[in-house]
């Protein structure tokens, strides 16, 4: 068992809102972020449904001279980080030594901007490629831009674990704080995958939900009729602190990160290990790390993307770990869509509010639970339940499994 | 020719989101004036190449930061003349 760390700030840019309570209310009420791509958008006619986040003006977070060739994922991350730091009441340099602040903000990088530049290269040759492209697309640049914008001079990195990256960034941040290398870590993930090449890759791999007349019904975690995921874009950033540091500066602590675990499937690049054994082990490691037993976890926010294989494997893993002590389980992706790596950060934020309010979001569109996904589902309506600990799962292509446990703030 | 290049430079800087208020022939392109940094100067070199078909190598482009607007326009005009004559 290790000590927990404090969650003191949250910043979100998501298809269902930018304020954490707004996002939580949406997933509880089923206010869906899933829409048909509008005419004029590059995804119109490419995919049936997607989850778009609000526009963020690049020049509002990055100097205008540098903002012309910066991927949306980076822009959203800087906005979310600013909101998270403001929520934490932290000004780097005033409230904390800049060298004692770290950044672990991840994502696949600016693939949409890279694709645009590739088109320009094809059209105009060498002169079509902007010198500003590299800082606009590299996967470390969300973390770097946050460091530049807010004067963070400690450790910074991004982790490349696909859809597990948000959860893993929180875990890495926890590790850094426990080691004493930093007092504050800005952590999370950002993804902007809504462009044709990326969407076609998912579509051609038969991973996308399809054939739903009402786009809001397309993401159906654990449902018998689920037929794929819905791509979404988002950024989620949390500010974590050493508990003593947070207390000393009088911070409001939203929740604690009690523990985390990570494993690899060692099975297949895109298909999860069907028995869920590695995913189960990530949950067990997280429980041990937090010093909790299965009965201590009052809610599990599942990865639950709405794919046939993924949901069944995760359900098998959850059953294996929890057995008769299974907590209420839901996937909020029925409302948000699959926000790829950002999911873990957004869903951790949802877990924080669930702890605070004693309310557990349902799985939207779970009309007919698949027997292969037999779990203690939260159906239709949010469930009132005072819980002390919440587990959040995030699993990524490559077989990356991450489980994070959040607990009610100890102050 | 130099006037045309000067207009092209003004339009390029505006597109690149630089403030050109008070822009004059004696304004330095780099930190002491317009404050263009390395990537912006590289982009400016590409724009010149695209517009006029003349190329500045990397070492030459690095000298742009110390040039004034007037010197830059003259250098481009000279390169255009030299290239046209060959």
Automatic annotation (TrEMBL), chain A:
<dbReference type="GO" id="GO:0004315">
    <property type="term" value="F:3-oxoacyl-[acyl-carrier-protein] synthase activity"/>
</dbReference>
<dbReference type="InterPro" id="IPR020841">
    <property type="entry name" value="PKS_Beta-ketoAc_synthase_dom"/>
</dbReference>
<dbReference type="InterPro" id="IPR018201">
    <property type="entry name" value="Ketoacyl_synth_AS"/>
</dbReference>
<keyword id="KW-0012">Acyltransferase</keyword>
<dbReference type="Pfam" id="PF02801">
    <property type="entry name" value="Ketoacyl-synt_C"/>
</dbReference>
<dbReference type="InterPro" id="IPR014030">
    <property type="entry name" value="Ketoacyl_synth_N"/>
</dbReference>
<dbReference type="Pfam" id="PF00109">
    <property type="entry name" value="ketoacyl-synt"/>
</dbReference>
<dbReference type="InterPro" id="IPR000794">
    <property type="entry name" value="Beta-ketoacyl_synthase"/>
</dbReference>
<feature type="domain" description="Ketosynthase family 3 (KS3)">
    <location>
        <begin position="2"/>
        <end position="408"/>
    </location>
</feature>
<protein>
    <submittedName>
        <fullName>Beta-ketoacyl-[acyl-carrier-protein] synthase family protein</fullName>
    </submittedName>
</protein>
<dbReference type="InterPro" id="IPR014031">
    <property type="entry name" value="Ketoacyl_synth_C"/>
</dbReference>
<dbReference type="InterPro" id="IPR016039">
    <property type="entry name" value="Thiolase-like"/>
</dbReference>
<comment type="similarity">
    <text>Belongs to the thiolase-like superfamily. Beta-ketoacyl-ACP synthases family.</text>
</comment>
<dbReference type="GO" id="GO:0006633">
    <property type="term" value="P:fatty acid biosynthetic process"/>
</dbReference>
<keyword id="KW-0808">Transferase</keyword>
Automatic annotation (TrEMBL), chain B:
<dbReference type="InterPro" id="IPR009081">
    <property type="entry name" value="PP-bd_ACP"/>
</dbReference>
<protein>
    <submittedName>
        <fullName>Acyl carrier protein</fullName>
    </submittedName>
</protein>
<dbReference type="Pfam" id="PF00550">
    <property type="entry name" value="PP-binding"/>
</dbReference>
<feature type="domain" description="Carrier">
    <location>
        <begin position="1"/>
        <end position="80"/>
    </location>
</feature>
<dbReference type="InterPro" id="IPR036736">
    <property type="entry name" value="ACP-like_sf"/>
</dbReference>
């Amino acid at each position: 068992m290790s000590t927990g760390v404090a969650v003191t700030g949250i910043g979100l840019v998501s298809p269902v809102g930018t304020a954490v309570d707004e996002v939580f209310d949406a997933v509880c009420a089923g206010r869906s972020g899933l829409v048909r791509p509008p005419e004029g958008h590059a995804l119109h006619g490419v995919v049936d449904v997607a989850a778009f986040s609000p526009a963020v003006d690049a020049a509002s977070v990055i100097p205008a001279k540098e903002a012309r060739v910066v991927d949306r994922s980076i822009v959203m991350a800087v906005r979310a980080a600013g909101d998270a730091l403001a929520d934490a009441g932290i000004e780097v340099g005033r409230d904390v030594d800049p060298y004692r602040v770290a950044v672990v903000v991840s994502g696949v990088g600016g693939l949409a901007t890279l694709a645009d530049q590739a088109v320009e290269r094809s059209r105009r040759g060498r002169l079509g490629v902007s010198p500003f492209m590299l800082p606009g697309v590299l996967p470390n640049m969300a973390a770097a831009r946050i460091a530049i914008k807010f004067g963070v001079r400690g450790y910074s990195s991004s982790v490349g674990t696909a859809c597990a990256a948000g959860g893993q960034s929180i875990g890495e941040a926890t590790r850094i704080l426990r080691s004493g290398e930093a007092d504050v870590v800005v952590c999370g993930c950002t993804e902007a995958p809504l462009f044709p090449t990326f969407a076609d890759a998912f579509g051609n791999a038969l991973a996308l939900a399809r054939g739903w007349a009402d786009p809001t019904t397309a993401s159906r975690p654990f449902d018998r009729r689920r037929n794929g995921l819905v791509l979404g874009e988002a950024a989620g950033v949390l500010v974590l602190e050493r508990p003593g540091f947070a207390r000393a500066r009088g911070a409001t602590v939203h929740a604690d990160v009690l523990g985390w675990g990570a494993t690899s499937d060692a099975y297949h690049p895109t298909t999860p290990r069907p028995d869920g054994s590695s995913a189960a082990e990530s949950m067990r490691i997280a429980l041990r790390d937090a010093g909790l037993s299965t009965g201590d976890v009052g809610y599990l926010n599942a990865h639950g993307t709405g794919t046939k294989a993924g949901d069944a494997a995760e359900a098998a893993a959850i059953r294996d770990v929890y057995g008769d002590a299974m907590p209420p389980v839901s996937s909020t992706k029925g409302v948000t869509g699959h926000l790829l790596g950002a999911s873990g950060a957004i869903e951790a934020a949802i877990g924080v509010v669930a702890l605070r309010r004693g309310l557990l979001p349902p799985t939207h569109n779970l009309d007919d639970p698949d027997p292969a996904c037999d779990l203690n589902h939260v159906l239709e309506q949010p469930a009132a339940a005072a819980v002390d600990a919440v587990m959040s799962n995030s699993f990524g292509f490559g077989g990356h499994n991450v489980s994070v446990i959040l607990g009610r703030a100890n102050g | 020719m130099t006037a045309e290049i000067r207009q092209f430079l003004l339009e390029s800087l505006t597109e690149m989101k630089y403030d050109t208020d008070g822009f004059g022939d004696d304004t330095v392109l780099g930190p002491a004036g317009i404050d263009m940094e390395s990537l912006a100067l590289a982009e400016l070199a590409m724009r010149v190449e695209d517009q006029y078909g003349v190329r500045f190598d990397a070492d030459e482009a690095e000298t742009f930061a110390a040039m004034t607007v007037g010197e830059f326009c003259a250098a481009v005009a000279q390169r255009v003349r030299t290239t046209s004559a060959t």
